[in-house]
Design brief:
Length: 481
């Protein structure tokens, strides 16, 4: 077992050996507004999109220069200035199962970049260290390399888009789900603590394992059945890339589990296959799928009894919740989550509130949804949350922004929606939160009154479109009676 000294050396290189530049940007495809609308069944889509695989210089787990990959997705109307949005992807089945490989098997999560670009964001989806083109094994739920991969992609891409007539404003939105929820919270903290509170416009963290040393450690050390034992070796293998905590897997795992873990590490099987094999072995060998039973008894006992054990120190170092977010922030989760215990979200929220966070809210978006089915309501709430802050410049010369082009006079409304505009002749559409188009209307005055007495009390979205179709905006509408 390696000493903690390696942790200090590793983190030193990750912080100080940074270098970022674009190696290549390859156009991989495009989708029209109609195609994206059909893909997500969402009428709020305003643009088509082009998507690119980006290769950029960064650092690997040891701090050495490496070439990492990510996906860049850009709205197809280059006359506007857009916010940037970073989406951190969830746990991948294999090294190549990453957003930058969208369009090939395993790259399916990259399609979310189309969703964000269609809504008017220049979207960045990093693959993480050790994933995609990155060297070595992925550094799973490792704070420092999560930050370095994301920050370097943001810096590299920002330079490239500036040279290629893709215009962005100062807004930055951050989100991610599962492992990506962890990564989003990690990067959000980094941005605010190093770049200032105004560096992030809004952030939403979704169903992530934020409390590694608390909620996740407690789960592994318990005798509770857990159907996803492969997360344990995935985490151990990833931490070993960064910290060098063992020389041989036999120092940590019982012999009967090492063969399959080694196959996963070498890439001959995926994470899903590993999970099936480990679950079957645990059931056959011990009578229950209890992940901690894969670990050697003396190793497990040391973690339980010694707070200064290297594993406990590493887990604590990689917690990402003990800070105070300044930007408007949401934590979305589902209480029935079967993979990432929802208590992670509760711990993060409670700690942040104690630390003084004032623009933070938490929501159980579906108390009966498991980890897989929680994604859609969590992402839907994220998109609705972000739309309330999004600003898109539609006239670069005079600085007119979409948010400044139209205004709802009084919100919430009762029976009449009053709109004030800087232009004549535009249309509005009102959608419910599921995206259904409930009504459309043409307005020919700078002040318009719309009868909404037929709408039930609740939240809606008003989409404004200029007569020439070049300007769009979406605003929240609350009907209260």
């Amino acid at each position: 077992m390696r000493s903690l000294k390696l942790i200090i050396i590793c983190c030193f290189y990750l912080v100080f050996a940074k270098s970022q530049e674009v190696v290549s940007v390859s156009l991989k495809g495009s989708r029209t507004k109609q195609q994206i609308t059909s893909l997500f069944s969402l009428p709020l889509i305003k643009y088509g999109a082009k998507y690119y695989q980006v290769l950029y210089t960064s650092t690997d787990a040891k701090g050495a220069k490496d070439t990492l990959s990510g996906l860049l997705v850009v709205p197809d109307n280059l006359n506007n200035k857009y916010p940037k949005l970073i989406y951190q992807h969830g746990t991948s089945d294999c090294k190549k199962c990453v957003p930058s490989n969208y369009g090939t098997s395993g790259g399916e999560e990259g399609q979310l970049g189309l969703l964000f670009a269609g809504l008017g964001y220049v979207s960045l989806l990093p693959d993480y260290v050790g994933m995609g083109t990155g060297r070595g094994f992925q550094t799973y739920v490792h704070d420092a390399t999560t930050i370095s991969a994301t920050a370097d992609m943001l810096d590299a891409v920002s330079s490239w888009i500036g040279q290629n007539n893709i215009l962005t404003n100062d807004q930055l939105f951050i989100t991610g789900y599962s492992q990506g929820g962890y990564a989003a919270m990690s990067f959000h903290r980094y941005m605010e603590t190093t770049k200032g509170a105004s560096s992030v416009t809004a952030a939403a963290h979704l169903s992530g394992p934020y409390s590694l040393s608390g909620a996740m450690r407690d789960l592994i050390l318990s005798e509770t059945e857990y159907s996803y034992p492969a997360y344990i070796p995935n985490t151990v293998l990833g931490f070993n890339e960064a910290y060098g905590i063992y020389n041989n897997l036999s120092e940590i795992f019982k012999q009967e589990y090492i063969a399959d873990i080694t196959k996963y590490y070498q890439g001959s099987i995926g994470l899903v296959d590993l999970n099936i094999r480990l679950a079957q072995l645990l059931k056959a060998n011990t009578g229950a799928i209890v992940g901690g039973r894969m670990l050697k008894d003396d190793f497990l006992n040391e973690i339980r009894t010694n707070p200064d054990h290297i594993i406990n120190k590493i887990l604590k170092e990689n917690d990402v919740y003990d800070w105070k977010p300044e930007a408007p922030t949401r934590i979305f989760y589902c209480k029935a989550d079967d993979q990432v215990p929802y208590i992670n979200s509760i711990i993060a929220y409670d700690t942040m509130i104690v630390n003084g966070a004032s623009k933070l809210e938490i929501m159980d978006v579906n108390s009966t949804a498991n980890h897989g089915t929680c994604f859609t309501p969590a992402m839907t709430n994220t998109l609705l949350f972000f739309l309330g802050f999004q600003s898109i410049t539609i006239d670069v010369e005079d600085g007119l922004t979409e948010l400044a082009s139209w205004a709802i006079v009084s919100n919430p409304v009762d029976d009449v929606l009053q709109i004030v505009s800087k232009q004549n002749n535009y249309s509005i559409a009102i959608h419910d939160i599921s995206g259904r188009n409930l009504m459309m209307s043409q307005i020919s005055e700078t002040i318009g009154d719309i009868d909404v007495s037929h709408l039930n009390a609740g939240m809606y979205f008003v989409t404004f479109t200029s007569q020439d179709g070049k300007a769009h905006a979406t605003k929240k509408l609350i009907v209260a009676r």
